[in-house]
Amino acid sequence: YWPPQYVIMDGATLEPKRIISTRGTTVDTQEYHPEPRVAAIIASHQHPEFIVNVKETGRILLVNYSDINNLTVTTINAARFLHDGGWDSSKRYFLTAANKSDKVAIVDSKERKLVTLVDVDTIPHPGRGANFTHPEYGPVWVTSALGNDKITMIGTDPEGHPDQAWKVVQVVSGQGGGSLFVKNHPNSKNLWVDSPLNPEAKISQSVAVFDIDDIDAGYAVLPIAEWADLSDGPKRVVHPEYNKNGDEVWFSVWSGKDQES
Q: From first to last of its 261 residues, what are the pLDDT tens digits of the chain?
């Protein structure tokens, strides 16, 4: 997060080629912010650009690297406290949480502009989010939240499902707040939701798993920390990640620096 800048490097040698400050004014009150952090960087599939979230100012930068000596940067006004995000299933639209603003910003990376801001609650924290085809609403992107147990699905198919596109189509409850990541895989029917920052050990040490074909049925709880058979510690279960084939999902079990993880 420090210093407030992003760096374009040589891909082979990691030599810094350009260092660009992110200091500037906030998107809402236009106040100068001396230390706005870079919260996410993602590569566009449409143009030779990096998409850069500047957290405190609420601005999304489209950094065109085709000529770094004559750098072109397009600034998109979104919402303050931008954090992480990921692609929809088409890899055209970037959906990213503005967590303390309780919004998800949607950027069309092909047209290089903001589509809309979607209201969600409370303190969305998707990681990269998750994509699947909802049996009723079509393709959706999913985020969980730090501030409550809500798991929010946003429609992402403006051509096939225009009435649902860029709207919250369904909200279901997970185990509780304190979630950092949701995850699924094209070859899996499961949606995984962690809750490592939940104050209740029973919740932070386990994970919720949904059947994407029957989301309304609720979730099963898997006691990952118990199965890990570690020594004493918080044993917070975090960051589900699939293998390439989508037939295994892995978790980190996170304790203090002097404890077994």
A: 889 999 999 999 999 999 999 999 999 999 999 999 999 999 999 999 999 999 999 999 999 999 999 999 999 999 999 999 999 999 999 999 999 999 999 999 999 999 999 999 999 999 999 999 999 999 999 999 999 999 999 999 999 999 999 999 999 999 999 999 999 999 999 999 999 999 999 999 999 999 999 999 999 999 999 999 999 999 999 999 999 999 999 999 999 999 999
Q: Which helix (H) or strand (E) holds 113?
A: strand 113-119
Domains (range + CATH), the chain: 1-126 (2.130.10.10), 178-261 (no CATH)
Secondary structure class of 207 (helix, strand, coil): strand
Token code pair at residue 234? 């918080």
Separation of CA 89 from chain center: 14
- Provide CB contacts within 8 A for 183, sequence distance 6+: 127, 130, 191, 192, 239, 240, 241, 242, 249
